[in-house]
Model the fold of this input.
Amino acid sequence: MNTSSPQHSPRELQAALAASTPPLLLDVREYPEFAAGHLKGARLIPLAEIERRAGELPKDQPMVCMCRSGRRSSEAAGTLARLGFTNISQLTGGVMAWEQAGLPLEKEAHAPWALERQVRLVAGLLILLGLGLSLVWPVAIVLAWFVPLGLVFAALTDSCMMGMLLAKLPWNRRANADCLLPKATSKS
Done:
């Protein structure tokens, strides 16, 4: 983890959010993860898009990067620091730690399945398809072998090509850019 940027425990961040000038919350997970549970007011810019979309972020405002556990937020903080952002910190332990501390998360009403769950479904279906087709076309058994080899490669490299491909499908993308901006609260 990038220890060069300051860290906030969930309780410290909760206190900072209650201050008169709260920090900007930057969630760098993918949309399905964000939709399943995020901090109120967090902006979503997935890690893979940080460099390209850094211009959407104010350089003069304190910012707290977060992800599921802290690895991606560390990468995002490093990228933002390299791009000239100076007031960046991270949520220690990520959204998992926030949730474990019993703090509230907002959830999208129609959140897609988590990418990991989608990968398991597609991998299982591809293996079943390969096995089934191999009964009539023996060469199809290659598909049943290809998927577990891909899963082993994903585990060894800590990257998942299938997950990256699934993330680009329409149901894993928000139809509009509303999730990029905190929702405005109306005062009555």
Observations:
- Residues 115-171 form one domain.
- The chain has eight helices and five strands.
- The mean pLDDT is 89.
